[in-house]
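Work Package 4 report. The design task specified in the project plan requires that, given a folded chain encoded as structure tokens, an amino acid be chosen for each position. We show below one input record used in the internal validation round.
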């Protein structure tokens, strides 16, 4: 289980997260929703200790700082340089590095995992392509394949469905469902409220502070959405 305790973040004295506390159950897909500027991505980066913050996150009872090897993270596509001259299979192989010793090279065993992961996201025919030649949806699938070979217990994805095609979205969701069935715990920053009931078991509703969290059927309701988004939201 992942527990966030009193998490606060300031950007140049501007409050981005305000004393957020919540729990994420194991072996479920949890969506993180809220309006722009609500602190959704900031929360993930705080848990990962990428940015300075107040408060603490516990992963299976231990401080997240000592448990980062259990987390695979896919940041927003716009924040990644997909023009870097690297092939699809090489990009996916980066996910194996977390399980290798210092200076250890990727061997046949790891390359087999890479091949299986690329096949899982239906990109085998693109294995030798440069990542810059891919569509947005295909590149997002490469990033997910990189998570597969990392074999982490927790998977964080920040807006994985933005700017991708419907085929890629379907493949990604099917893959995530399979990962959940294997016992993985998945957190997804998401913006399309129409897909929440279809995609997630649990949901976290944020607007700089915790509005509510828990099973979708219990907390994804008009009252909480209006608190988060304002009375003008169409429910």
């Amino acid at each position: 289980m992942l527990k966030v305790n009193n998490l606060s973040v300031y950007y140049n004295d501007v409050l981005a997260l305000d004393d957020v506390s919540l729990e994420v159950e194991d072996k479920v897909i949890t969506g993180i929703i809220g309006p722009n500027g609500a602190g959704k991505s900031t929360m993930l980066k705080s848990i990962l200790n990428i940015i300075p913050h107040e408060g603490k996150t516990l992963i299976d009872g231990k401080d997240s700082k000592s448990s980062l090897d259990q987390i695979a993270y896919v940041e927003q596509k716009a924040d990644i340089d997909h023009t870097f001259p690297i092939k699809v299979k090489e990009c996916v192989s980066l996910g194996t590095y977390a399980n290798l010793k210092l200076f250890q090279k990727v061997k046949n065993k790891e390359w087999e995992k890479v091949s299986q992961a690329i096949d899982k996201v239906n990109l085998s025919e693109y294995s030798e392509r440069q990542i810059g030649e891919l569509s947005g949806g295909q590149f997002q699938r490469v990033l997910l394949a990189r998570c597969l070979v990392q074999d982490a217990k927790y998977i964080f994805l920040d807006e994985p469905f933005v700017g991708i095609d419907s085929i890629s979205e379907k493949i990604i969701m099917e893959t995530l469902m399979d990962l959940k069935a294997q016992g993985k715990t998945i957190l997804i920053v998401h913006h399309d409220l129409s897909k929440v009931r279809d995609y997630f078991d649990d949901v976290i509703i944020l607007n700089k502070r915790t509005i509510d969290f828990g099973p979708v059927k219990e907390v994804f309701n008009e009252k909480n959405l209006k608190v988060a988004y304002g009375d003008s939201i169409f429910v």
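Residues 166-181 form the longest helix (16 residues). Validation will be extended to a larger panel in the next phase.
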